[in-house]
Amino acid sequence: xxxxxxxxxxxxxxxxxxxxxxxxxxxxxxxxxxxxxxxxxxxxxxxxxxxxxxxxxxxxxxxxx
Length: 65
What we know:
Elements: H1 2-12, E1 15-22, H2 26-40, E2 47-51, E3 54-63
Antiparallel strand pairs: 1-3, 2-3
Helix pairs in contact: 1-2
């Protein structure tokens, strides 16, 4: 169900997207990696970012209208 909701939001609001997940939340990392890959048709390589002392995994992708 979560994939369906994310895909519907992305369909309604195309453009540049950034999904940020805490590095310690491994299940969420897997969920978002799979949801994004299914939607865009390819795996997105995440970027590791540290901000305010927190470590994040960031998925960036762009959807055209």
